[in-house]
Amino acid sequence: MQVETARIAPVQPDPDKLERARLRLAAELGPEAFRQNQTGLAEFRDPFEGPGATRHQPSFVVQPGSVSEVQAAVRIAAEAGVHIWTSSMGRNFGYGGSAPAVNGGVVLNLRRMNRVLDIDVPNACVRIEPGVTFQQLYDELQAQDAPLMMSVPDLGWGSMTGNALEHGYGYNVMGDHGSAVCGLEVVLADGQLVRTGQGAITGSPLWSCHRRGFGPSIDELFKQSNLGIVTQLGVWLMPRPEMFATGTIQCEGDEDIVPLLEMLRGLLLDGVLQGIPMIVSNPASHGGGDEGRGGFTADKLRQVLRPGRWNVRIGLYGHAAMVAARRKILEQRVGAIPGAVLELREYPGDATREMVEPRDLIAAGIPNMVLQDRLKGVFGDTLGHMDFSPVLPATGEAALRAEAAVRDKLQQYGLIGPFGLLLTGRSMVSASMVLFDASDAAHVGAAKQAVSELYDTAASWGCTAYRAHVSLVDQVAAKQDFNDHALASVYARLKDALDPAGLLSPGNHGIWPGGGMARN
Amino acid sequence: MQVETARIAPVQPDPDKLERARLRLAAELGPEAFRQNQTGLAEFRDPFEGPGATRHQPSFVVQPGSVSEVQAAVRIAAEAGVHIWTSSMGRNFGYGGSAPAVNGGVVLNLRRMNRVLDIDVPNACVRIEPGVTFQQLYDELQAQDAPLMMSVPDLGWGSMTGNALEHGYGYNVMGDHGSAVCGLEVVLADGQLVRTGQGAITGSPLWSCHRRGFGPSIDELFKQSNLGIVTQLGVWLMPRPEMFATGTIQCEGDEDIVPLLEMLRGLLLDGVLQGIPMIVSNPASHGGGDEGRGGFTADKLRQVLRPGRWNVRIGLYGHAAMVAARRKILEQRVGAIPGAVLELREYPGDATREMVEPRDLIAAGIPNMVLQDRLKGVFGDTLGHMDFSPVLPATGEAALRAEAAVRDKLQQYGLIGPFGLLLTGRSMVSASMVLFDASDAAHVGAAKQAVSELYDTAASWGCTAYRAHVSLVDQVAAKQDFNDHALASVYARLKDALDPAGLLSPGNHGIWPGGGMARN
To answer: Is the CB of A463 less than 8 angstroms away from the CB of B393?
Structure first.
């Protein structure tokens, strides 16, 4: 199948084109693909865009139910001259949900493609469609009593595929979700169906088991990009451990983060600690939230933070003897940091939701909504957040510098937000949420401005975002400036090679058709 | 810098073009870049091609000393209309060394670019140029007393870069060398210099520490491919462990491989075992070697094999308490396989070459030439080998099936070779060497024919090579046949996007310019 390759301008398509596309999609894909439109587009906008937003507006949403319907949608959109913006569930709320970079994009949402295609217990991996949520896979594993443990992010309602393709993180052993992917099925812009890795061999028994095929692996090209539509992927899980221990390390001094991070990084690289320790700070001064803005105050923020100046959540997994050895080494090391307190709770590996304290569900790999419930309980249902999430060196100095920058910037704009760090090993990812009242346009605008300016600050450290809100992607991508933005020019060449019409998600992660930079 | 993009036909260039290229390269790069030519081309041919070989013949070798010389070489070759075949050290002897797919290719060999650019102890990583060998980095780490442990392949004389870019394997914790790469510098076919990952940010502190940047990672595109010339890369090592234990598990029954692999796979996925266990078989019948062929007999083969029907080499690393826990679990599991014998030797993590038994050097991460010395000691200096190395399911059934296929095929051609397996976790890679007398053209031809036929057999299992001899790459690549070879068509699109002239290593891993398949 080959579709027309007339270039689709990366600007808002005219209403006639959109209507033509909508009618043809309805005729070919049927009413099921348009059921969501009846309840309105709200769910596919940026959930925190605020009143009166005019950018990143989708035109309509179409939900194909199969690979052949995805192929049909691609063909129809190309022929009609409108662009597609792909989302899996669209739950990445801090980054814009399903909102397209370019107004008028047709949201191709993959929620209906939600089959768990394979659960391979001996190899601890699964094969899923993009609509499968963390919660859904967990339920399926429980129903089959499959002795596997998942890694889950803070909220369990999102698509595993969407999260992995965005380089998302969870927290336990397989917490680098992008790296847990093994073997994709992808629909290209011209409708061609490609299987990557071992999946390129018809009848391969190893599609979800071995990462590379013969020749270069192209899996990474379809993460944080707009080069194809992923319709299936393999994910590596961990075998259910005999037991696990989770809890916190708490320190009270500002500077304790220096020895703390040095210890944690060393133990991660040594293989004593596993997964991705999550560090939250709780400083004396918390930015500039004031009562004038719907009660977004530092006092309220403190209600949702864990205790301690620095509070690290960790997990130890495995056979009881291994966990005991890990614990003993950890206790010795924590003991060497004056004032540091280690607290661990132990669970059997097959602990169910009912057996696990809510604060330990993440470490247990059990999907949940605890964080959102807590935040909304304090800040109300109109709570919105935008995330400042640069990649940083895994040092206390980098943590203190970033924390100070966030605090000062939030102070400047009268904002608040928790400052967090995900320790990924040789690096860490700041996970700072800037909180606001999404029903207040000025509050939304202030948050966006603050995060944008923080990325300029991060650039002065040689750092940029691991992931960014759709409205900031061009700014963030532009920080990759080595040799006159050589990497961006490679992205443009790849885009033009695989999607010469510029059909798929123009502007996603700052990648535009036609070799250009931002033009929205 | 932009070079001409006139298409260079992927056939042997005419002598005038080659001479023009050679003269211009000599003029611009100077005599140092041509020193190796004075000792002849032998070292840059397929070392085991045998007498009278006519294919995969390089024209001459040029050795740039810097990135700018690589860029100059690319420009000159493009202008002269000759293609370049890149090699790092060229020590991948079982796969063809530096021999190009197309006769007359100019070998661009990177041995002179051999700087260790950075050793980052806290983050357990290094940044190196492509000419750095395993041995050289080891010596450098020793000289600086850097507490890091390497993963090394069987022979320590090769380029770390070349090995990693070929998806090569070592055996200890960071044994998946392709996955240990973090951040490349690449010269593209038009001379453009690109830094990938965090290196795309000027002044990034994280180039060797964090794998991905913002947007898709392109690092994998430059492995097993011909899309650019890698001039620098980051490599993750492990912190030097407090201690390690290494040794073997030995079983005597043919069918013992079934519970053995099940146990090993489970312990690897559980995190009890680390690295890449190496399994060697020693069956009653060893293929068909006979005295008529330079003494390549099964009796001689037995002299170099480890004892036992199945013999697994393993390693346990870390803090003493962790190693003890690993060992205890392993002992219990091995005890559950009747007749299986575990033997382990313990070393301090900083054990030097002098302290480690030769058979344990690999597990110690100390580069060595033990395997070659042993093989040549038995089979003589004209020993050659060609490797059959498919990716297989990590099961005993797959092992027995592959072993039988290799034995039968070698029997048919009067050949011998050890049958080995690298257990990579959810999959395994067969590492079977077919041995021959490289001074005997008929013996060479028989080996090549046998390996080629074995890949046809592997395809019937849905499996193909993880890596292949240059003369077999088209055959192997063609096994990736899903949806009318859709993956190959993506490769062709990427090749034409990044190297429209078809300048770089045409035919490498079956990727040809112009969107075609094999045409040599």
So the answer is: no
